[in-house]
Amino acid sequence: MNMFARRMRASAAAAAFCIATAIPGWAFADPMRVAFGDIATVESLHLLAALERAKEKGVDVQVTFLKSEDIAAQAVVSGQADIGVGGPYALLQKVKAPIRIFMQLSKLQFYPVVNSEAYKEWKDLDGQEIAVHSRGSGTEAIMKLMADKNGIAYSNISYVPGAEVRTGALLQGNVKATIVDSSGKRILEKEAPGKFIFLPLGEVSATDEALFANTDYLAKNQKDIEILVESIITTWREVAADPKAAIALREKYKLLPDATPEMIADIEPYFTEAVATLPLNGGGADAARDDFDFYTISGALEGKAEELKVEDFWDLTALNAVLAKTGTK
């Protein structure tokens, strides 16, 4: 067994222990257990609303927020969670985990950024340290891809979960090169105009976050999965048609009760920008092929993109059933 596999299995065991002890009875209940490797923020507001809609339709959804996508993925692999949020391509290919992606939640929209006092352009990052969200994440894939395109090599990649955490680290001077989301970009431009430089990225089309589950769970709970998928697609289309809808959904379902006035004010601007990243048809086979192109170039997937098979990574059963009802916008 190689070192990567040993680490993954150890992580799975640790995740299983932590979740089972932290959430008494979780392993014995029958709800749809969703593991989210991040904290609840404005960025996840539409997903939280969609989960509430699934509850209204009879699905007992229970969400647990964990400290990283890695732990969330291992929770699904170990059977401590039914559904995970993230992009588990490396886990699927390298560990042969018995899971499948069943819908795309968002496409990548990130902004590589550096402190202008230290760096000016991509070549300045040769031999320097950068920070990304987590191992195997879209942020890591983007930064590795850009290193390859610009002929540079980083001295180290640090894993700092949460775009808002990386944004704060930039403002505090603890990080000098990282990658942030659109909210982080706006904060940096507002709080320290001219201090940070956003590096050119070019066109990138790939999954940022997706939903995935154990293959057994998908087979045995297709009706619940379809309700979840339809709830998400309905919500995505509503928010895409009018970003203000996210504000109404927060109020209706009493989401993010501890949100600050600044966070609330950021809801409409965030979703106005995020509309371009929302797949209104769940991604499907086209998204999978885009991912193969991107993640093989970035190194997260091995092999040739054209030789990878959608069915080895995705289960489109529920998504196709929902799209047959809702249409394929």
From TrEMBL:
It comes from Mycoplana azooxidifex. The keyword Hydrolase does not apply. Its main location: periplasm. It holds the Pfam family NMT1. It comes from the Bacteria. Residues 1-29 form the signal peptide. One of its GO terms (cellular component) is periplasmic space. This is NitT/TauT family transport system substrate-binding protein. Belongs to the bacterial solute-binding protein SsuA/TauA family. It is found in: Periplasm. Residues 55-246 form the SsuA/THI5-like domain. Keywords: Signal. The lineage of its organism: Bacteria, Pseudomonadati, Pseudomonadota, Alphaproteobacteria, Hyphomicrobiales.
